[in-house]
């Protein structure tokens, strides 16, 4: 481990930082325990992937199945991005499943019933989601009704409006262009014999970008005399992640290429990660979730931030509604049922705190992937749906219990 002396303790003629490197087992142990709450979720994800790969005889890691996981669970991951932001701020949103259904219904009505171009349906769905988010944000931020009550009412209200819009019947099919949103692929752009070079290139660029960003972060931490892992362990971490990502890319490349929805999801993850970690708005969300009174005294416009949190949740619910309706090639009155619970579970399993103030977008993605891999693996094994629900419930309970245990342990120090 690299340990640097405080700035004030250095002599003027001394080196800028004195490094002590420990490459023994103690550093490896500390690497996994220093922030178990953050790193544990990724260890759990790897363990669950390995477990179901063994239980299914490798079928869960097949090229076709990996592609299906991306297509089938992308809308849950989109919802989880918005949900983790809501939870960080100390709220909850129970209406997202109903909003998915309503926005998909609006899009289907515009495109299928009224014959408008596919993009008009997309715009109509997004506008509906933004309006719903503003509705929730007004009651939560400016009237002061708890988000649990507002979104519970919204869950009932927007499910009913879905039935009204669809006249209690399903609408299908969408035009082929609309279906490309969730089921389209970018392949063959650069050729490849039995595999898609474009997919491999995109993931290779992503790995290089990740490695460069991690190197810059490491240099910044060293510049501020922060503790960082030794360079060999840093390189090992980058290599492990790079290998895992490129294996995933290879499986996509030999299947059907790069899914369009995966590109959409990657853009959303990058944008919202930057917003939550680097922007003033993101820091204000964390401040409100940590201590709302202190945030207000510090000059944070709590009402305005809370309002835009729910507007954003409405927007992402609409995006998920578009993806889901595209994937199912239609709109159904029962669409989005229980989606809110999957999104909430993904956020909590990914490390979000029940009391707010803690959580990351990438953590929610890891939590969502855990739920996706478990669901997919149990389906491949032919496990009954009731047993799947029991397993998901137990995993969620354990995740929240782990959060509470960490808080108590930290408070006792």
UniProtKB/TrEMBL annotation:
Keywords from the named record: Cell inner membrane, Cell membrane, Membrane, Sugar transport, Transmembrane, Transmembrane helix, Transport
Transmembrane segments: 39-58, 70-89, 94-112, 118-140, 147-169, 189-212, 233-252, 258-275, 305-324, 344-374
Matches recorded under InterPro entries: ABC_transp_permease (IPR001851)
Membrane topology type: Multi-pass membrane protein
Secretion signal span: none
Pfam families in the cross-refs: BPD_transp_2 (PF02653)
Subcellular location: Cell membrane
Domain of life: Bacteria
PANTHER family referenced in this protein's UniProt entry, alphabetically: ABC TRANSPORTER PERMEASE PROTEIN YPHD-RELATED-RELATED (PTHR32196), XYLOSE TRANSPORT SYSTEM PERMEASE PROTEIN XYLH (PTHR32196:SF32)
Annotated function: Part of the binding-protein-dependent transport system for D-xylose. Probably responsible for the translocation of the substrate across the membrane.
Descriptive protein name: Xylose transport system permease protein XylH
């Amino acid at each position: 481990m690299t340990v640097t002396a405080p700035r004030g303790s250095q002599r003027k003629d001394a080196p800028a930082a004195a490094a002590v490197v420990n490459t023994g087992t103690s550093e490896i142990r500390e690497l996994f325990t220093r922030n178990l709450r953050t790193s544990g979720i990724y260890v759990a994800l790897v363990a669950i992937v390995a477990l179901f790969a063994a239980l299914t005889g490798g079928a869960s890691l097949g090229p076709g199945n990996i592609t299906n996981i991306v297509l089938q669970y992308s809308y849950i991951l989109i919802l989880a991005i918005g949900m983790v932001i809501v939870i960080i701020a100390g709220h909850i949103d129970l209406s997202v499943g109903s909003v998915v259904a309503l926005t998909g219904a609006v899009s289907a009505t515009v495109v299928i019933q009224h014959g408008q171009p596919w993009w008009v349906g997309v715009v109509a769905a997004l506008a509906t989601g933004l309006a719903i988010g503003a509705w929730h944000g007004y009651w939560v931020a400016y009237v002061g009704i708890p988000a649990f009550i507002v979104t519970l009412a919204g869950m009932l209200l927007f499910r009913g409006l879905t039935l009204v819009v669809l006249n209690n019947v399903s609408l299908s099919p969408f035009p082929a262009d609309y279906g490309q949103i969730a089921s389209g692929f970018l392949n063959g752009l650069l050729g490849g014999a039995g595999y898609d070079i474009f997919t491999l290139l995109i993931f290779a660029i992503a790995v290089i970008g990740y490695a460069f960003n991690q190197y810059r972060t490491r240099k910044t931490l060293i510049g501020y005399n922060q503790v960082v892992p030794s360079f060999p362990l840093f390189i090992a971490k980058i290599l492990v992640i790079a290998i895992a990502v490129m294996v995933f890319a290879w499986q996509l490349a030999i299947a059907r290429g790069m899914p369009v929805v995966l590109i959409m999801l990657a853009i959303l993850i990058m944008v919202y990660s930057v917003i939550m970690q680097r922007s003033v708005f993101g820091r204000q969300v964390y401040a409100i979730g940590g201590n709302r009174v202190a945030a207000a005294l510090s000059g944070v416009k709590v009402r305005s931030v809370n309002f835009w949190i729910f507007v954003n949740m409405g927007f992402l619910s609409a995006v998920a509604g578009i993806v889901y309706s595209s994937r199912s090639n239609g709109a159904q009155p029962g669409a989005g049922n229980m989606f809110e619970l999957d999104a909430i579970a993904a956020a909590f399993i990914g490390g979000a705190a029940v009391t707010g103030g803690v959580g990351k977008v990438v953590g929610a993605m890891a939590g969502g992937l855990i739920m996706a891999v478990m669901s997919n693996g149990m389906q491949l094994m032919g496990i009954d749906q009731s047993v799947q629900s029991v397993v998901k419930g137990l995993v969620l309970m354990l995740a929240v219990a782990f959060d509470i245990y960490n808080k108590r342990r930290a408070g006792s120090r």
